[in-house]
Design brief:
13 strands; about 10% strand; alpha/beta; disordered N terminus; 9-stranded parallel sheet
Amino acid sequence: MTAQRGNTRSGRLAMVVAVVGTSTALAVGPGSAAGAKTTAAEPAPAHTFPTAAAAPASRAAPAPATPTPSAPLNAAGPSSGNGPVPFGAFLDSGPLGVARMAQLSRWLGGTELKVAHTYLPGNHWRDIAGPPGFLHVWAHWRRMKADRMLVLNVPMQEHNEDHVSDAEVRTLLHQGVAGRFDQYFRVLAERLVHLKVPDTVLVLGWEMNGTTYTHRCGPDPQAWKAYWKRIVTLMRAVPGQRFRFDFAPSRGRDAIAWTQCYPGDDTVDIIGMDAYDQPTGLPFDEQVTEPYGLQQQVDFAKAHGKPISYPEWGLFRNGDNAAYMRRMLAWIDEHKPVYNTLTDYCPHGVWSCRQNLRSSQVYRSALYGRTEQPATPAPTPKPPAHCFRPGLGDWVAYWTGGRLCLRRR
């Protein structure tokens, strides 16, 4: 099971657009990537957020403030324990993804996103080694607070979405086992340590049980497992690292049973799962009980003494499915994964997709104002005397909380 690929996740470019007069800037929805392939133009955003000051349309999102030097790194990362499960959302692979996290937090009534999630581009080996400047803004965000977590999806092969044949995949896997690609993973590990994010969670070779990626397992499971072990071993050998490696298949059997790709407890720290609401008509209960589904993931992880995660989840084949959203959030609360990150671009998301309003209301209600306990949303305050509220329609009023303020002249 693989989510929509029209919006390539392996790289996106920040974009900010100035709108509404000359004094108000509004950040827009997902953009496309520099150097990444895109097959279709992305839709206009479903909502807008006022910023503190106008920004030029050609400038990317600003860099975060300088982190507090005394904030230590948390070797274990945030722990769900008995409190809220650490969560985030995939909002963009580039710097705009970091900027949008603050916007999503405001929409959730101040609930803080503890997890940042991005993807290394899989076009060329130089991308997989960590392109210069790509990781800096994400590392900057992670270092701001000790209880934050950076999750980085790492392709195991270049040309990762180029529909490479099974025969070629098999050859590449054997080359990987022989050490042909070692240098790129060693450089990536060294760069992450240099950026002071040695505790990054690495989702290596995600959705390996499917057919989409060149780093898939099906053509030669034994070689795939040996290649995974080689990558993990050499990255763990870099001084100063504290990486955690997340084995994250897609939910269900897909092209091969994901259990056949499991490389072993010695090189896996977390057993994840990418879980989207598909195929069409499949109820949530069957997503739980199907072979290689949600329950089998939980049981398998327990048998191997590993925590679980949901690096990707969201809507897909069943439209605006509020029941799925409610059940998946309850599943996450019950099973306490190390982290979960919602995929928030259409059709999967609830923040940036106007067609998913009912699911959006469920998600927002569940997480609004959440610290140790869920909080009741505060009433909308009256506008200051110097403001007026334009009539933007129910949808925009919903997303902005009715708080868009334009200065009276």
